[in-house]
What does this fold into?
Amino acid sequence: MLSLSACGASDAIGADDASASPGERNDITVGLLLPDRDTARFEEFDRPLVQERVDVLTGEEGKVVYANAEGSSARQSEQIGRMVVDEVDVIIVAAVDAKAIGPDVEKAEEADIPVIAYDRLAEGPIDAYVSHDNELVGEVQGRAIVDALGSEAENSKVVMMNGEPADPNTALFKDGAMGELNGNVDIAKSYDTEKWLPAVAKANMKKAIKTIGADDVAAVYAANDGMAGAVIEALEEAGVSGIPPVTGQDADLEAVQRIVAGTQHMTVYKSFLLEATGAAEMAVARVQGRDIQFDSLTSERVDSPTQKSIPSMLVPVVALTQDNIEDTVIRDGVYDVEDICTTKYRAACASIGLTP
It folds into this structure.
């Protein structure tokens, strides 16, 4: 699937013609709750993109109240409770624990505060959901491994490093990956990773290496880039000279650099611009009563364990490899060539035709 350029992404969700209009209430407060700081994208991209779009849509009269749960569902519960007490107009939340946050979403509904589930499908009576086709994310990762192993795939030992079980996306990623891997490779070991922590992934990878043998690990399905980096560290420390294919997700800068260097096989790039801007568009449209715009943004439907037919926006994804760095994160303005091709990676960049 093709990624969308920054210009195209803005056009797809309303661009500047959706900015503040005379007579509308623009002095709104958007509560933004993100789950952790270990996933680089949340602080570096999602937060400022939501803020920027709210500014545009409200003529800079609106404001974003921000909180990061730092991986704690209890802390996130306190944060959403505080926003309900403070009577924010709408809440955008990426849940630490999709099930645990359900009662907090109910309290927001009781206070007539709409809740938009962001990136992760929260339980409870949410008003909308914006994310990606997360099963497709797993399919893209699994397919990358099978393609990389080629004719040797059937007898190849693959390690699966899944995400946090309380994150509903983890099961979707895994289901998508299993659809590609099951029957095509030998899944030698599979682990869940508490709170998506790279340190946990590294410890589990060390266990897998000890059981399977460093030279017999043919590939690793790592659900995101933070874990991919930890997996690669464990393999290098075990003396593996030729790192086997390792997947990732989120297109973190360090992951893109590892792809340039050839130590990480691929990552899944998801347009932060489309997702964050879409969430901001939904939030403001909901508060301002722009039902037609809200409906056009949420043209798809998704079910959660507690709610059916949730209005949703699912953003496209693309497999990022050495071959399409320029056509994805560079074209979309996520990174400049200079960001990627630092002194350490300059020669590797030159070898694949990526030069400042």
In short: The CA atoms of residues 338 and 356 lie 6 Å apart. DSSP finds 14 helices and twelve strands in the chain. The longest helix spans residues 40-57. The radius of gyration is 21 Å.
